[in-house]
Specification:
By secondary structure, the protein is α+β, with helices and mostly antiparallel strands. The chain has 18 helices and twelve strands. It is elongated and about 115 Å long.
């Protein structure tokens, strides 16, 4: 037996009233191109909201600074070939690939290294640099050949990784991160002076072979991994990157555009002096430095997909997560106000009399009061949480729905099918829920979609006025921050245009869908 014959014999799902109603509705709906466009735009927004964790490139919090404020979008660098794009330029900050290891000096056997790549979840990649001292003499630089950027001892161990600088310009700032922990054994752990017998270093080495020390550690040390944030000063940036930039004659000091980051472990001059003054102290033990991260972020005039905000936060991540807030508040606030409006409209329209008079006077009272000032007062009183904003919007959003439902119920309650239900003894509740409500529902759909638009605009307005949660990314909050700090006047048009465009397009999408629903479901309009 074929599927068709089976469905026909058993009254398959395609013969159900629900399927027939939905297929008929879609047949009419797809005739309206503007409604299809609205659904397409709405689908994009819903996809953005669901995929926000995957689409966002940084922390979406409005206060999460990732770069200097008001940096232009990265794609604008197309019009500025000399512009530097803010980015992470170190090729492997978490040490997945084995670095280049070097042991320096005559006593190389006292220094060792290892590289570990995590194979299980929760583990981290790391590099170990180890100095083991067994009372052997160390080789030291003389005061005349010690360069300020190199360690005191000729014996040390380090690892390096190279990266290429792609711009013919110097970055405005450079931040580096070195995450490491230090484990001490023997006399290094027990002697009071053990922590100043060595240092951990970081250097930038240009292709001419010039070493520029940008970090050196100091006691105390701990095996616990800790971040060391290194903000390069003006001289460090110019010395390290200046040689890779061509001058006005096209001459470049360094042979190529390669820069090397080196991290090393070396004894200090204090250790030599200690051995000289304490010849009876063999001072044995080891120092192991475990490095888990080396990163380098160079800052320029451009950053990310949509630049940065007034606080240096990523505008793209805020824009993506803002779709969640707008849809969440818009849909829930409209749903809550619709429920209240339907209940009030049903009760007022069906029972009439004093009940209708009391409820409608309440509706008139709320309609007379200016909406935005009342929402501002309620939002300030209840607090700026998302849930409170939904309640505030819903409090003023149900009045229009109640009037529409009331007028429709008053037209339906005197029809024959309602009179027949009363005649057979059906209760008022049964009549309202089983007969009146289903006939009122179609006219609500267009009103609901337009209600979402109003809720989204209300949330944006409250956020713009600073009455929503400042920790939640939203389009209104982005506009408020841009306006309060003069972003648009300072040339940061992207922090105004894109949030405003998102609000406009989402509102238009719901408007298009609502207009089409009205065309399809409203009998009077369908007959034209």
């Amino acid at each position: 037996m074929s599927q068709y014959e089976s469905d026909k014999k058993t009254g398959g799902w395609k013969d159900s009233n629900l399927y027939v109603s939905l297929s008929g509705f879609w047949h009419e709906y797809r005739k309206h191109k503007i409604g299809i466009l609205g659904l397409a735009i709405l689908g994009l927004y819903i996809g953005m909201a669901i995929g926000a964790p995957f689409l966002a490139t940084h922390d979406p919090s409005p206060t999460a600074k990732v770069a200097p404020h008001f940096l232009a979008p990265q794609w604008m660098a197309f019009f500025d070939p000399q512009g530097v794009i803010t980015n992470e330029y170190y090729p492997d900050p978490f040490l997945y690939e084995e670095p280049n290891f070097v042991t320096q000096g005559p006593n190389k056997d006292e220094f060792s290294y290892s590289h570990f790549v995590a194979e299980e979840a929760g583990e981290r990649n790391y590099v170990n640099l180890t100095w083991t001292h067994n009372a052997e003499p160390m080789y030291w630089r003389t005061p005349y050949d010690i360069e300020g950027n190199l360690p005191d001892s000729l014996d040390f161990v380090y690892f390096t990784r190279n990266f290429t600088w792609p711009f013919n310009n110097i970055p405005s700032d450079v931040n580096m991160t070195l995450e490491y922990g230090v484990t001490l054994t023997g006399d290094f752990a027990t002697q009071e002076a053990g922590g100043i017998m060595f240092r951990v270093y970081m250097w930038l080495i240009d292709s001419s072979g010039n070493w520029r020390r940008v970090y050196q550690s100091s006691a105390p040390y701990t095996p616990t991994l800790q971040d060391r944030r290194i903000d390069l000063n003006y001289f460090d940036v110019n010395e390290a990157f200046g040689g890779m930039v061509q001058d006005e004659n096209g001459v470049q000091e360094d042979p190529d555009d390669t820069l090397t980051v080196a991290v090393g472990l070396a004894p200090t001059r204090y250790f030599r002096n200690y051995l000289n003054t304490h010849p009876e102290d063999f001072y044995t033990g080891s120092v192991t430095v475990q490095v888990t991260e080396v990163s380098l972020i160079a800052y320029g005039e451009y950053f990310g997909i949509l630049g940065t905000t007034d606080k240096g936060a990523d505008a793209w991540s805020q824009l993506v997560y803002g779709s969640r807030i707008s849809l969440y508040i818009g849909i829930l606030a409209t749903a809550l106000s619709t429920i209240v409006g339907v209940i009030v409209g049903l009760v007022a329209g069906y029972f009439g009399g004093r009940t209708d008079e009391i409820l409608m006077r309440l509706v008139d009272f709320l309609l007379v009061i200016p909406g935005l000032p009342l929402m501002m007062v309620l939002a300030a009183f209840l607090g700026p949480s998302v849930e409170n904003i939904i309640v505030v919007i819903a409090i003023l959003g149900w009045t229009g729905t109640s009037r529409i439902v009331r007028s429709q119920v008053m037209a339906e309650k005197n029809k024959a099918y309602v009179e027949s239900a009363r005649a057979i003894g059906a209760s008022d509740t049964y009549i309202i829920l089983r007969h009146v409500l289903p006939n009122v529902t179609p006219i609500l759909f267009a009103n609901i979609t337009l209600g979402v638009v109003g809720a989204i605009l209300s949330e944006s307005g409250l956020a713009f006025l600073g009455l929503t949660d400042p920790s939640q990314p939203s389009w209104g909050r982005m506009l408020a921050d841009a306006q309060g700090t003069g972003g648009f006047y300072n040339g940061a048009w992207w922090v105004v245009v894109f949030p405003g465009l998102m609000i406009t397009l989402l509102s238009l999408a719901f408007t298009f869908v609502g207009h089409t629903l009205d065309q399809v479901l409203n009998p009077r309009l369908r007959e034209r």
